[in-house]
Amino acid sequence: MQWTRDSWRAYPIKQHPVYPCENTLKENLERLEKLPPLVFAGEVRQLKKSLAKVAKKEAFLLQGGDCAESFENFGANNIRDMFKILLQMAIVLTFAGGCPVVKIGRIAGQFAKPRSADYEELNGVSLPSYRGDIINGFEFSEKARIADPKRMLEAYYQSATTLNLLRGFAKGGLADLREVQRWNLGFVKKSELHKQYEDLSEKISSALAFMEACGINANNTPNLREVSLYTSHEALLLPYEEALTRVDSLSGDFYDCSAHMLWIGERTREIDGAHVHFLSGVKNPLGVKIGPSAKAQDIIRLSNKLNPNNEEGRLNIIIRMGADKIASNLPSIFKDLKKEGLDLIYSIDPMHGNTVKAGDFKTREFDKIMQEVRYFFEVAISEGVYPGGVHLEMTGQDVTECTGGASNVTMQNLQNRYETQCDPRLNADQALELAFLIADLLKRARK
Ligand code: PEP
Ligand code: CO
């Protein structure tokens, strides 16, 4: 079938909300269609070029952010701290890998959530599951759980103001390499981790002083004071994505202007489904999550459909199998894929395969997360594949959602600051610690 912005409507679709009133849905979508794009085709092409470098083993991808953004926790401090922690991690990885790090946030649009069950039960009451603030409310009440199309507009405006602040931070001084010490969020002052970061900052400062003496400084070299932080989210809510998909006047191509990069989740990646069909028609760089049940053939089919011209930087295969499964599943997948000569990026999401229940909370253990990352690097290196990136759920705040690491979060104190509306995130200390560990692996991978 010929692709058009709305041709996905003829395909089977999973995880799709039921809106009680067709007319209100239509009205809200018509309003969205008239609103300006959130990102521009030119920026999206720039990201694709950077990702092509990842595919060519010349760069590394760091993608991270909240599991789900929320209307309630929206504010400048959260955005600033997410920006800072991403920058801190990127600098650690850049230094170790000796290569550029492409930075993509799960931010400014990461609102819609796939759910394993359509209904949620609490104290004998069963209600429709929470599907993210762009669809319904988190509160466990009948009213909140009704899908409300007005929420799409609120998500749009929140994304626009988030992007505005991110663009300010990226170009307006906070990203200046001379500020490297100020990015430190430092919850556990004087910890080994922060000492490690301060040592790194000092090395960077001396390198900058040396370069300054040679005439290279932030005034004549914008890369020393500016960064590019791109946005991404799961393209789950297709009416919203359709409304923000626009024709680029320069190329005549369609771009989904809700974010620079979009990905397809593990639950909606069936080859003949609506989500794969929709994304096959837009030019943005794409990701697909690949869980433990996937076979190499599934990835080959997805690649043929989403990246038929085998373009470098177009498709990112995000492996998320779990620490206990990855070592047995991934080697044969890499072996089979290598024979195909596909230009893909391979990255690892060590979060979604390692979620466990701890009483009322969902949590993830730092060691399991790290173990999956380590296996990913080991298997990739031994199969001659480039481990191109990581995909993390994290926050710049001092939350207690994942256990372990050098931080002292335990199963017992999860309740202290458990703030996520969906999956457990690494707090800023855990994220930085993980970055140092990944840095060691990256250094070896790039030798
Ligand atoms: C997610 O990234 O939040 C998510 C739901 O991932 P997956 O599709 O891999 O389960
Ligand atoms: Co998640």
Automatic annotation (TrEMBL):
Q: Which GO terms describe its molecular function?
A: 3-deoxy-7-phosphoheptulonate synthase activity
Q: Which cofactor does it need?
A: Mn(2+); Co(2+); Cd(2+)
Check the record and name the InterPro entries matching this protein: Aldolase_TIM (IPR013785), DAHP_synth_2 (IPR002480)
The residues that hold Mn(2+) are: C67, H352, E393, D423
The cofactor remark states: Binds 1 divalent cation per subunit. The enzyme is active with manganese, cobalt or cadmium ions.
Q: Which Pfam families match?
A: DAHP_synth_2
Coiled-coil blocks: none
- The enzyme's first-digit EC class, named in words, is transferase
Spell out the protein name for this chain. Answer: Phospho-2-dehydro-3-deoxyheptonate aldolase
Q: Which organism is it from?
A: Campylobacter vulpis
